Amino acid sequence: MIALEQQTDSRPRLIWLSVVLALLVAEAYTLIGLNILGVGDLPSAERPAAVVYAAAGCYLLGGLLILLRRRWLWVAGLLINTLVMWIFFRAYAARPAVLFSSGGLITKAAQIMLELSLIALIIADRRSARRA
Prior knowledge:
The chain contains 5 helices and no strands. The protein is mainly alpha-helical. The chain has one domain. Helix 1 (11-33) runs antiparallel to helix 2 and helix 3 (71-92) packs antiparallel against helix 5. The protein is elongated and about 55 Å long. The relative contact order is 0.18. Keywords: Membrane, Transmembrane, Transmembrane helix. The chain crosses the membrane at residues 14-38, 50-68, 73-93, 105-124.
């Protein structure tokens, strides 16, 4: 007998993982805006609520856009998320109290996991397109 190799499509799981991570980041930014999640020694003048809530809204929208299953949206989200993290690390590189605050660690850990899930999703989608 010839053994058939069963190939499973990992994209649905990766899509939902990415959505959940984007919503987690949105929730973390919302908690920062509500002063529930700390951000180190940042005075309130340096963390305007509008910016924090705009970030939360963008991650919420981005998480929902993942569900559209468009690779170009996943790539755009990957690049934008990378830019957000790069700006954060550049802005607060000399302020470990902000970098290692609960808000900084939670948002960046979730954003890094989101990056990895989007990369895996893009690769899985590309492989699936080649097989078809």
